[in-house]
Amino acid sequence: MSTRYPSAALQEFATALLQRSGVDAEKAKTVAEILVEGDLLGHDTHGLALLPVYLREIEKGAMAKTGGPRVLADFPAAVTWDGCRLPGPWLTVQALELAAARAKTNGTCTVVVRRSHHNACLAAYLKRFTDRGLMVVVMSSDPAVQSVAPHGGRRNVFTQNPIAAGWPTDGDPVLLDVSASITTGGLTRRLCDEGRKFPGQWGLDAAGLPTDDPAKVLGNPPGALLPAGGIDHGHKGYAFALLVEAMTGGLAGYGRADPLEGWGATLCVQVFEPALFGGRADFVRQTAQVARSCRETPPRPGVERVRLPGENGLRRRAEQLARGVALYPSILPGLAPWGEKFGVALPAPVSADRPPA
Question: Which of 69, 111, 208, 241 fits as disulfide partner to 79, beta carbons 3.0 to 4.6 Å?
C-alpha cells in the first residue's frame, strides 16, 4: 500500500523549500500549487518529482527568483512577454490570468512567453479556468532541448511539445494533456534509472533502429524518442510538433534559431470566453451533447466503457484530496536532502485511521 500525504502539507513543504532557496513568496506558493496539482491528477513525473531539479536550477542561478516578465508587445488580444528565466509555473498562471481577464471583453486573448523556465504539468493549469466557464489552451516547447526525432528521421530536433486544453460541459470538464512525442522525457529518464523498458518500441537507438530500451534513447551517442504515432503513423505527432513550434517559438519570435540559454520553455496560452461567441449556454449544450455521445458509445471488446480525456485524472484528484496523495516512491527521498539543507521537515504521512483534513 502506498504511503499517502495530505496535499496541503505537500504544498506547504514545497513552498517552504522554494522560499528558503530565495524565491518570492507568491511565486513559491504558485509553483508549489502547480507541482502538487500535477501529482493529484496522476502526472507523477511532472509534479513534485521536478522540485529537486528546480531547486538545483535556482542554486546555480539558472532560474530567476524575483521580478516579473518584460512586456515586449501589448495589444488587446495579443501579448508577448520576455519571461526573464522566471519560474515557469508562475509565469504560466500569470499569463493565463491576463488572458482570462482580457477574454471577458475581447472574447479571446493569446499570451506568448519567451525565456520562461520549465513550466511543469500543463494539465495542472486547466481546472482553475474551466471552473470559471472558460476554454483554455496551453502549449509549450523548449528551444534548448532536442529529444524527439521528426518522422522518418533519426536525429533529435524537438522537445515533447505538449499541448493541453480544457473546456466546460454540463458536468466535469474535458481536460486533455498530450505531447507530440510517444512518451515524455520524464518517464524515459525514470524507466532508464530503474532499469526498465518501454511498453513498446517508443524510441530509436543511435543507429536509428526502433527500440524499447530507454537507456539506448539516452545513451552516448543518443538515440531519439519517436513522435506520437510511432514508426507507422509518426507523421501525425511530427505535424503536431511543428504546429506547437510555430505557436510558441514562432509567435514569441524566440526559439531554436537563437543561441541556447539552458533548460526552460517558450509558452503560448489562449483563453476563450464562450459567452462572447455563440453564447455560454449553447457552448455547454454542444460540448455536453458530444461528451454524452462519447460516454454512451458501446465499448469494444475488452474495454469497460468509453471515457473522456481528463476523467481518470479528475477521479484520481478527488480520491487523493480525500485520502492523501500517493506519491511515487522516489519523490520524497529525492527531496529529503533539500529539506535537511533548508531545515524544513518532511511532511508527515496520513494516519491510517484519520484521513487528511
Answer: 111
